[in-house]
Amino acid sequence: MEVYIEYVVIDNLIINYLLLWLTNLTLKLKAKKRMCFLSSVLGTIASVLMPLIKLNTLSPIFQNAILLVFKIFVGLILVLIIAKYKNFLYYITAFFLFLTYTFVLGGMCFGIMYLLNLETTFSGLVLFGFEIPVGLFVLLSAMYLKILYFIVKTIRHKNAYHKFYFDVIIKNDNKKIAITGFMDSGNQINENCGGVVVINYKTLIKLYPNLNYQSLIMGSLKNTGLKNAEFVNVINSSGNSKMLTFTLDELEIIDDNNKVVNLKNQKIGLAKTNFNGKFDCLLSPDVMF
User: Fold this and answer.
1) How many CB atoms lie within 10 A of CB 46?
2) How far from each other are the two terminal CA atoms of the chain, in whole angstroms?
3) Which positions ≥6 away from 7 have C-beta within 8 Å?
4) Burial status of residue 102 (CB atoms within 10 A of its CB: 0-12, 13-18, 19 or more)
5) Which residues, listed in sequence order, are joined to residue 176 by a DSSP beta bridge?
6) Helix residue ranges per DSSP H, 28-174
7) Dihedral (Cα; 24, 27, 29, 32), 10-degree rounding
């Protein structure tokens, strides 16, 4: 039987790393990438050495039994490297999840190859007359799973928090822009007994593309063009800080039922950090209810 050592190495490096990464992701083990890679390399070395183990003096049943025990032992070591032993139940759960992903990913890979009627050999996959490592095909399958996971996670997040997202229309100085707002119960910033809507720099630039940001950063509010601009004290998790606030002409906040809340001369605050990309401003319950 002819075995290509480079295919064995590539296959096992890719497959072991993916299985360990999936286990780490599912159980949130917080294992570092280098530990997953180190564990994958150890598994690859074991796979290379396994065909070299000579058990010719034993019966086929004992040979298979010894190889099975060896594979289980290697799997336990691989999981131990990324899981770090806390207790037996925690560790054995990680190990069986590792085995489950082995069967699922392997079955998915060979199922696709069966549907496409691709020829497989011991050393690799024959695709259009060229022999390539099976691990590369598994990598494509894993990429598909990752994309699917991201889509499902996004949809689940949207369904769970959709009632907290609002369409926001800002009208100011004959300019109109549409952004996404997020209702944040933690936004307790108030000024003159009214809630403050907090925007990011990206939205501010859309509203005031010619604003003198250098003067603003230096703390000067002269000739900025911002209405009723001032710095107010804000208490947050890191202590007291200054927040720039100013007034916009009009805000329209629209929910999923097309209910519109219209705010005139609304007080706006400027966040010093960007948001997570899913929204552009933080709405205060005080401006909605």
Assistant:
1) 18
2) 75
3) 123, 124, 133, 134, 135
4) middle
5) 171
6) 33-49, 60-83, 88-115, 134-161
7) 20
Q: How far apart are CA 99 and CA 177, in angstroms?
A: 52
Strands of 119-120's sheet in order across: 119-120, 125-127, 130-132
CA–CA separation, 197 vs 245, rounded Å?
Answer: 9
The residues, any chain, with a CB within 8 Å of residue 75's CB and separated by 6 or more, are: 43, 95, 98, 99
Residue 166, both tokens = 């609002």
pTM for the structure as a whole: 0.46
Which CATH number is associated with domain 163-288? 2.40.70
Tokens standing for residue 216: 């603003």
| Euclidean distance between CA atoms 138 and 145, whole angstroms | 10
Q: Residue 235 pairs with which residues in a beta bridge? A: 240
Which tens digits make up the pLDDT trace of 33-91?
Answer: 889 899 989 988 888 887 777 776 777 788 788 888 888 898 889 998 988 777 788 88
The structure tokens listed for 59 are 């019966």
Q: What percent of the chain has pLDDT over 70?
A: 72
DSSP designation for 164:
G
Whether 173 and 248 have beta carbons less than 8 Å apart is answered as no
Structure tokens at 128: 């259009």
